[in-house]
Design goal:
The complex is a heterodimer of chains A (325) and B (331). Chain A has 325 residues and is an all-alpha fold. Helix content of chain A is 70%, strand content 1%. In chain A, helix 4 (74-91) crosses helix 10 (221-243). The two termini of chain A are 31 Å apart. Chain B has helices at 8-23, 30-53, 62-79, 84-106, 111-131, 133-136, 163-185, 188-198, 200-205, 210-236, 246-259, 265-285, 291-305, 313-325; strands at 151-153, 156-158. In chain B, strand 1 and strand 2 form a beta hairpin. In chain B, helix 7 (163-185) packs antiparallel against helix 10 and helix 11 packs across helix 12 (265-285). The longest helix of chain B has 27 residues, at 210-236. The mean pLDDT of chain B is 86. The chains are: A mainly alpha (325), B mainly alpha (331). Chains A and B meet through helix 1, helix 2, helix 6, helix 11 and helix 13 of A and helix 2, helix 5, helix 11, helix 12 and helix 13 of B.
């Protein structure tokens, strides 16, 4: 089967896919750390993993809610955000936060382009939207692989400062991780205010609830979809840019991210932004704890089982209300 | 029972295609012969996948179920010493069994949820192969799988390590499977699949147990996927978890979608056309790294501009010709 796809697929097949490269999975800490320190450290790591996942899953959910499309290429948007940092910060040595802004703007703009050229023509057909995004995934991966090479990028962290949040030697959190946690909090908070307090936000929520009724009220579905796609892509781009120094940055890093994002969106319930945040926290804790006390592959299996159980027991997810298929 | 009725012209075309298929390997280079083997196996993968799509469900576990067939057959032959031909059939049966077990949780879901659920189930199986060194061999998989034993017919020795002979074996097995799948589609069961796809509520209201028929389609499709996996495993002599990952599944999707799913020859057309593009055009140009890029572009273009697949080109062209010829050509 693989050979029909030819040698590069062969090479890709050999790549180390270990989904356990969710950042901050192993409890670092000092070897002499006590159990309580290990637990606290794992909690800190879990918060980091959760905030990072929430940024991606909420974006994925926003796209699904407004357009009914499951964007398989969302992991690649994350990857592009990370490569913006590789390009601007590591190669061209611009300031780190400028590179993060570049990731936000560039990937957000790409989101607008995606909506116009790919998702709009197939909006009535969810399966076609999914397939188109798979095509885009292949294109983006190959483009980055050709532009930067199939290798891990080394990005010197912009800061090496660390904190001991509980005053314990065994519990460490680096400033870089704090950036991700704070960044996720700020972006998600801003999104929440935007959705609840502004006219655009209302329009967006109306489209997610009932596109036809929204259109009858004079809301432009095209414009709303473009906005949602832009926000969602920019969130993935920011997540990638902030996490780039912490994770394995290479052209195929999107894969594990999209798998995790699917689990989170399903567990939270499709179409529910709050559900995505709660599920991201739940998954972050479960995955991090299982990884710390067993290993990464087992944690992946547990995560997938969690999703299967949710699908069986409560197919609309923890917070999902309605089905949109 | 409705039988598909075929005229002599169709039969002649089919006979011509088969004559070409039998002659083909002798015209190819060694590496192309190997590719021909994979192509024939892939035909079985996509056609069995299409059987499931007849009911309207799209699974992302098909590649993994193919792997179940490959692993089961390889383990039976290597560890338990089961002769290879029955091991292959048992491998296919194992894939069908796994699909049957999975059908209980999965067919509580529909459409998108089924897609993601099947993906999760498949990933769990695949990660188990990766995680458990005993008996699955971990990330490196199983090596030194026994090959199909040589046979002797009237003093003529046929060795199956030769790709040409293995190609003929696969061609025979796949042809037989296609006949079975084709008959099945045109039987009562197959017609029910179509009914479920297009009118699932209506089918239910006249007493069709849609879940049962979805399960039947899933189990049968998985049986043939497992058979394809077993054919692959005993040819390559090695299986590993990465052979059956999402990327393998994405290629199956691309083949099926580019070809189209309305007829049985749509997916075959898709896999054949893309293999030719892959091997002749892309290899000729020497753009290895750009390959996924080209595939992605083909996939997007086919969704946007040819949503019914390559198979719809024939009728479309016929209609275009009829329009050129004038109103008399219209049906």
């Amino acid at each position: 089967m693989r050979a029909g796809a030819g040698p590069p697929a062969e090479r890709l097949g050999a790549r180390l896919f270990g989904h356990n490269d969710l950042p901050a999975v192993r409890a670092g800490g000092s070897p002499s750390g006590s159990m309580i320190e290990l637990l606290l450290q794992t909690c800190v790591n879990a918060i980091y993993a959760a905030s990072f996942m929430a940024l991606i899953a909420v974006g994925l959910m926003l796209i699904f809610g407004v357009m009914g499309v499951v964007n398989f290429a969302h992991g690649e948007l994350f990857m592009l955000g990370a490569y913006c940092v590789v390009f601007a910060y590591a190669d061209q040595s611009y300031p780190y936060f400028l590179a993060v802004m570049l990731g936000l703007v560039f990937v957000g703009g790409l989101g607008i382009a995606m909506e116009r050229t790919l998702f709009r023509p197939v909006r009535d057909n969810p399966l076609a939207g999914l397939i188109v995004s798979i095509g885009l995934l292949l294109i983006l991966q190959a483009a980055i692989a050709m532009g930067f090479g199939v290798r891990m990028e080394h990005i010197a962290p912009p800061t090496r400062a660390t904190f001991h949040p509980f005053g314990l030697d065994g519990v460490v959190v680096s400033l870089q991780r704090l950036y991700v946690i704070v960044g996720a909090g700020v972006v998600l908070g801003a999104l929440w205010v935007f959705l609840r307090r502004t006219r655009f936000g209302w329009a967006l929520r109306a489209c997610a609830q009932d596109p036809e009724a929204a259109a009858l009220q004079g809301i432009s579905i095209d414009r709303t979809a473009r906005l949602a796609m832009c926000i969602a892509a920019a969130m993935a781009g920011v997540a990638g840019a902030l996490a780039a120094p912490l994770v394995r940055t290479w052209p195929y890093m999107g894969h594990s991210v999209i798998v995790t994002a699917f689990i989170v969106t399903i567990v939270g319930g499709l179409g529910s932004l709050e559900g995505a945040v709660v599920a991201a926290i739940l998954y972050g804790f479960v995955h991090t704890f299982v990884t710390t006390f067993s290993d990464g592959v087992v944690a992946d299996i547990v995560g997938l089982l969690l999703m299967l159980v949710v699908l069986i027991v409560r197919p609309t997810g923890l917070f999902g209300a309605r089905e949109r298929a | 029972m409705r039988r598909a009725h075929h005229g002599w012209r169709f039969r002649a075309t089919l006979a011509g295609i088969y004559a070409a298929l039998v002659a083909m390997p002798h015209l190819l280079s060694f590496s192309q012969k190997e590719i021909a083997v994979f192509l024939v196996i892939n035909v079985l993968v996509v056609v069995s996948y299409r059987l499931l799509t007849l009911t309207g469900e799209w699974s992302l576990a098909h590649a993994v179920l193919m792997g179940v067939g490959a692993y089961a057959s390889a383990l039976l032959a290597k560890r338990l010493g089961v002769p290879v031909p029955p091991a292959m059939l048992l491998g296919a049966a194992a894939a069908a069994l796994v699909a049957w077990v999975l059908s209980f949780p999965l067919f509580r879901m529909k459409a998108f949820y089924f897609l993601i659920g099947s993906f999760a189930a498949g990933e769990i199986i695949r990660l188990c192969w990766k995680r458990f060194r005993e008996p699955f061999g971990g990330p490196k998989g199983i090596k030194l799988i026994p090959s199909v034993p040589d046979v002797e017919i009237g003093g003529l020795e046929i060795a199956f390590f030769d790709p040409v002979n293995y190609y003929y074996l696969c061609l025979a097995v796949v042809t037989l499977s296609l006949v079975v799948l084709h008959r099945l589609e045109h039987s009562r069961i197959g017609l029910t699949f179509h009914a479920i796809h297009w009118q699932d509520r209506l089918a239910e209201s006249v007493g069709v147990d849609t879940r049962r028929y979805r399960t039947i389609a899933f189990v049968i499709a998985s049986f043939f996927a497992g058979l394809a996996g077993a054919l692959l495993a005993h040819y390559l002599g090695t299986v590993n978890p990465n052979q059956f990952d999402v990327e393998a599944m994405v290629y199956v999707l691309i083949w099926v979608i580019v070809g189209g799913t309305a007829t049985i020859y749509g997916p075959i057309l898709g896999v054949a056309a893309l293999t030719v593009v892959n091997e002749i055009v892309l290899r000729g140009l020497g753009v290895d790294q750009a390959r996924p890029l080209v595939y992605g572009a083909i996939l997007i273009a086919s969704i946007l501009f040819l949503p019914d697949g390559l198979e719809s080109l024939g009728p479309k062209m016929k209609r275009a010709f009829a329009r050129i010829r004038g109103p008399h050509g219209q049906p």
